[in-house]
Structures are given as structure tokens and as C-alpha cells.
Amino acid sequence: MHTGLARMALATAVTLSGVATAWAKEPGPSFLRDVRIAARTTPESLTVGDRATLEITVQAPVELRIAFPRDPKPGDAVEIQDMTVAEPTSGATPATWTARYTMGVYQVGYVVLPPWPIEVRRGTAAATTATDSIRFFVQSVLDDSLAAADLRDLKPQASFPTDWLPYIVGGAIALAAIAALVWWLRRRRRPRAKVVPLVRQRPANDVALEALRVLEAKQLPLDGKFVEHFVALSDILRRYFEDGFGVAALEETTEEILYDLERHGFDRPTIGRVRALCEPADLVKFAKREPTIQECMASLQQTRDFILTTASRLRHVEPEAETVAASGGATA
């Protein structure tokens, strides 16, 4: 604040409905002597939690400018909720500025507001003056009978000694029951697992040749079902490669099948025969080529011949039965 700021004093203490006025006094800038301040609070009856209004009126020459604080800090018991300023009427002499503060009051008894600062300017010169502290009374919401009842806080809960005996006995019984259950489970004889026959998988060449016989009996080309014929023929050949040689032919393209067969040790003439078997089926399935009935029958016979000539390379597995415990144990 400026050096030599003027201090204002209210003539009397302000009650809830009271009004006080004050003039700026020396020392201070000379223009403060023409500033007159009045303050009052409303309403007349106020209880804790109610809203009160503080009205500060400043009269001064028209060449002066008055500024009120927008965010004063009146203390914890009072909260400023709203603030409006009424500017002076044009042509009025002296000019009058009025600031109204809406406050929430949260304290019972006498409440004292700190001095309210007000800034006064004339041109580039500025000074700050203030009202004196403002005091008003807030009534209690309790009536006389309740106030005289001398109400006090509740006493803390009473503590009682804990009897641990039931918990100890219950815990001992539970432990004994668990121990008895574990002993019984260990003494109990496990039932013998059921023995079920397990038939070994048939050789891949037998499965493929039987599928070819079924396909040949359907005579699909005679009904014009060329695509179905070649799809079934391709699936039989691919499953033969997958079951007999471990090639994932059902999920691979023709080129991928040929590459895998080469890794499994097939010679180039055999790989060429596989290409000759797969390419006609690819043309029918994907290129929409329509073959003749003779070509369909020739492809089936060529597939049968290929399976017969390569069956010796399969691992020989006898279709004998085994007995295996149903629980997944060792063979019997």
C-alpha cells in the first residue's frame, strides 16, 4: 500500500441493523479529505447459516475513482458468496459508489469483520483507505430450553473383556476334524482304473484307398459335379500326406506341399508326380476350368497309383488293440 495511507474509523460499533460513517483523515493525499464512507449490515435478525448483506457507500468528488476489493478474506466464520458494485449516476455531485457483499455466516455470537480496504484514485495517484472493523451478533438456532439443557457429546463405547475360550475350543475341534479327514483319505484304497481297449490308428494308405473307393462309387462327374469331385480328390491326397508323412497339407498351398515333401526326402520325380496330381484340381477349384469325365476318372486312378507306390515309405503300424487305464496311466 502507499506510504501514509489514510485510516478510517467508524463513529460507533455497527450492529446488524446499524449504520456507521467515517471520513478520511490526515496524514495522506489531500484528495482523501473529500471522501466520505458509510457501512451497514442487514437483516436485523440473523441466525447461524443465514445470509447477511454488507453495504459500503462511498461519496467523493466526481474526478475520483473508487475500487472495492473483489475477493476479501473476512475470516473462517464468514464466506463471501456474491459482490455487486453500483457506479455513480452521471452528473451527480458528489458521486456515490455502493458495493454490496452477500455473506454466509457460520458462527454463533459476536462476529467481527476486519477493516474493509477501499482504493481511491485521482489520475495516476492512488491511495487506500479502510473502514474500521465491523461487528454484529448472530443468534443460536437453539431455543432457551435446549440451550439450558447442557447437552454434551456421547460417551465412547464401553469395552468388555474378550472370552477367548470358545474360540480356542472351536479351533481345536476344526483342526482335529481336518486331521481325521486327511488320515481317512490316505487310508482309503484308490479304486482300480477301468481298462478300455485302445485301437491303433489305421495306416494312412488304407484310409486313403478306402476314401478313393467311396469317391469312385459316387460317380460325381457323371452328374456334372466336377468341382465336388476334384475337391474330394484333393482332400484325400492332402490327408494322406498329413497322416502318413507329417506334412500340414490341409492348410498349405500346392507349392508349400511340394517344398515340405522335398524336406522329407522325396525325390524330384515323385515331387513332379505330386505336382501333376495337384495342379488339375487347382485349375478346377480356382480357375473354374471344366474337365471331361475321362480326365476326372484318370486323376482318381493316378492318385490311387501314387498312394500304392509310396505306401512303402510309411511307418508300418499294425492295427492291434491295447488296453490302457482310463485314468491315463500305463498300458496293461
Question: Can you describe this structure?
Answer:
The protein has about 325 residues and is of the alpha+beta class. Among the domains are: about 20-140, Immunoglobulin-like; about 205-315, Four Helix Bundle (Hemerythrin (Met), subunit A), CATH 1.20.120. It has seven helices and twelve strands. A hairpin with an 8-residue loop joins strand 5 (about 80-85) and strand 6 (about 95-105). The protein starts with 18 loop residues before the first strand and ends in a 7-residue tail after the last strand.
Topology:
Elements: E1 19-23, E2 36-42, E3 51-60, E4 65-67, E5 78-86, E6 95-105, E7 109-113, E8 117-122, E9 125-130, E10 134-138, H1 144-147, H2 165-187, E11 195-199, H3 204-218, H4 226-245, H5 254-263, H6 268-286, H7 293-310, E12 321-325
Antiparallel strand pairs: 1-2, 2-3, 3-6, 4-8, 5-6, 7-10, 8-9, 11-12
Helix pairs in contact: 3-4, 3-7, 4-6, 4-7, 5-6, 6-7
